[in-house]
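TL;DR need structure tokens for one chain.
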Amino acid sequence: MNARSLSIFNAREFFLGQDEWVFLFEVVVRCFISFIIVLLALRLTGKKGVRQLTVFELVIILTLGSAAGDMGFYKDVGVLPAVLTIVSIILFYKLVTWLLIKSDKFERMIEGKPVTIIKDGRYTEEVVKNENISFDEFFMELRLAGIEHLGQVKYAILEVNGDVSVFKKPPDEIKPGLHILPDKIKKFYTDYYPADGLYSCVCCGYTEDKIQGPITPCKDCDGAKWSEGCASKWY
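>> reply
TL;DR here they are.
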């Protein structure tokens, strides 16, 4: 690196910007204040983990983080205006929470409503028609609940906070269903059935025995994508 390049690269400006060294101490103080305020704000939500947050609460947390961050490292952002912003957000959260308790319609508008994904081992009509739903994470939740195929599921409900509630069938009520193990669900057929056996429609979960040969449309949803089915009776 020559002298000219050294003159172009200003180390002090690179590390401090336009501020003085003393501002580093101020950053530490600002961050401590913002940390305490955001910690108190999180305590007021009454939540113990991110998985318990609804979409509305997640927006509140992100807004608090933005306000606290600005106060932490922007010198021209005063501490009092930032604190007032955070307090206002908390009060807004309390007001909306009160309205959620008072009005079911308002609650559905802000937080949405639980969606039944699986009913009696099959995707519900609402899910079949929704092409924007990704099932990878949903299948993961089912596998964590000990589910091997959809025929073992009586109900699976996607809650407003993203959790999945799974209600299993008794062993004597289990029917064949769509395999959801990773090495099975990723392998599907669109042209022909490679062998006689049990196959499930990937689009709706309909399951029946097929013979080797060309693919036929699903009797339930007209889908033409099939995967291996499973008839296991045990969890």
